[in-house]
Design goal:
The complex is a heterodimer of chains A (223) and B (225). In chain A, 67% of the residues lie in helices and 4% in strands. Chain A is mostly helical and 223 residues long. Chain B has 225 residues and is α+β, with helices and mostly antiparallel strands. The mean pLDDT of chain B is 85. Chain A: This is DNA-directed RNA polymerase III subunit RPC9. Chain A: It is found in: Nucleus.
């Protein structure tokens, strides 16, 4: 193993959630299809074949998937109510405020809607506001500046809120439609492909699985 | 909080997986190896994001597997220093608070990073904060009226700032023998720990700041002034 780049780019919570949910739904579809095919075969009176036609999903990936989805969809995080359009609009709207990349990412992830929450993300912006507030007690000149900074804080908050308010929740349903026919074909193919005794006798499987499997994998994926 | 790491590795696809498309089999194989594991100085691996390069599968002498040289992108959990994240209180003790995020729970708030003045209440098994109090010793703090204390209870959602991270790569090594008796090994350290802080305005239980918005703003002004 070799790490080429430990941090090539940052991901927002929403991106991670979408990826995980996509994996989750394909997994669900697969296991459902596998059960269905098994039932059909049983109904047709065929002898029970092997148990696992899909690439086995290991325990560790399932654990982290489920737990991470749980965390990202919990109600103290705004991730579940975000949309791709809302986020890209939000990032665009944030560009005039001269924020760093990390600050923008945190605004997207945490969606601060109150000054305190924004203060946490951007202490120095808020510090400036308070500092200038102190100055204004003695000098009048900086008042305008204070107003401007106060405004920018408020407008960031409104920007964030508008990005959240548009929340069509249909995004989840449309994603996997394209994948479905493809995988159904694959699963069926896998069933036809492998012999009944293959799973019982590993050596046997290797013998005649080798040639056919490699051919199928390397040329076209039409097994 | 999450980032992408580019990793290069050689993976073996078992003959039993030759029926599935190569890319799916490779991703499943990588996930089996990496997901939910900590890579030293990289972070906690979540799942494969995508494959960027895959070489041709080769058969080696000795097994029937196809070996692929793969360059892939991995979703990794590794919050950067000073990032603000939300986490739940898992447990509390005299030394501090342990937090959990569901998929990751080696996050700690040491007592020094609690808002001051604060103390640990052994009856409630929870830390509490006494805002605007003159008391400094834990004795004085524990004498305070319970109604004034702001407890950080178990299960509460905290907004925390990441202060530091520690990676430990403890190799098991050979079993230590002392005069023929097997010495008990020290308890294992978690491979990846995150040290967090809530000693700042706006950090701490989310409920503190959303309920007492108005009160807090006054406090804020007082603290700064």
């Amino acid at each position: 193993m070799e790490v080429l780049n430990p941090r090539s780019s940052l991901l927002s919570n929403y991106e991670v959630l979408t990826l995980l949910q996509e994996l989750e739904s394909t997994h669900l579809q697969r296991s459902k299809a596998a059960v269905r095919i098994k039932k059909e075969e049983e109904a047709a009176g065929a002898p029970p074949t092997h148990t696992n036609p899909i690439p086995d999903i290991s325990e560790n990936i399932r654990t982290i998937q489920v737990e991470a989805i749980q965390y990202l969809t919990s109600d103290h995080l705004p991730t579940a109510s975000q949309t791709p359009n809302g986020i890209s609009q939000l990032v665009k709207d944030l560009s005039p405020y001269d924020l760093t990349k990390a600050e923008k990412l945190q605004i997207v992830n945490l969606t601060p809607t109150t000054p305190v929450e924004l203060y946490v993300v951007r202490p120095y912006l808020a510090c400036l506001t308070t500092l200038i507030l102190m100055f204004t007690l003695t000098t009048k000149i900086v008042e305008e500046l204070e107003d401007r900074l106060g405004d920018s804080m408020d407008s960031i908050l409104t920007t964030v809120e508008t990005s959240l308010s548009t929340k069509p929740t249909t995004a989840n349903g449309t994603r996997d439609r394209a994948k479905q026919p493809l995988f159904l074909k694959d699963t069926v193919g896998a069933w036809d492909d492998v012999d009944a005794d293959a799973i019982i006798d590993d050596l046997d499987f290797m013998d005649h699985g080798e040639g056919a499997g490699i051919e199928g994998d390397l040329d076209v994926e039409d097994d | 909080m999450f980032s992408l790491s580019i990793i290069k590795d050689t993976v073996a696809v078992q003959p039993s997986q030759f029926g599935t498309p190569a890319d799916e089999a490779i991703i499943a194989e990588i996930n089996k190896k990496y997901a939910n594991r900590v890579l030293h100085d990289i972070g906690l691996c979540i799942t494969v994001f995508d494959l960027s390069q895959v070489g041709e599968g080769k058969v080696r002498y000795g097994d029937g597997c196809l070996w692929y040289k793969v360059v892939f992108r991995m979703v990794v959990f590794r919050p950067f220093t000073s990032e603000v994240i939300l986490a739940k209180v898992k447990s509390s003790d005299e030394d501090g608070i342990r937090l959990t995020m569901g998929f990751f729970d080696d996050m700690y708030i040491p007592a020094v990073y609690l808002p001051q003045p604060s103390a640990f209440d052994p009856n409630e098994r929870a830390h509490f904060w006494l805002p605007d109090s003159e008391a400094s010793t834990s004795q004085q703090l524990l004498d305070s009226p319970v109604a004034e204390r702001m407890y950080i209870d178990q299960g509460e959602v905290l907004r925390v700032r990441v202060e530091a991270e520690d990676f430990y790569d403890d190799e098991p090594g050979p079993p230590k023998m002392a005069e023929g008796v097997k010495v008990l090994r020290e308890p294992k350290r978690a491979p990846y720990n995150i040290i967090c802080s809530i000693a700042e305005q706006g950090l701490g239980p989310v409920a503190w700041w959303s309920n007492a918005q108005q009160v807090e703003e006054d406090d804020d002004a007082m603290d700064q002034g």
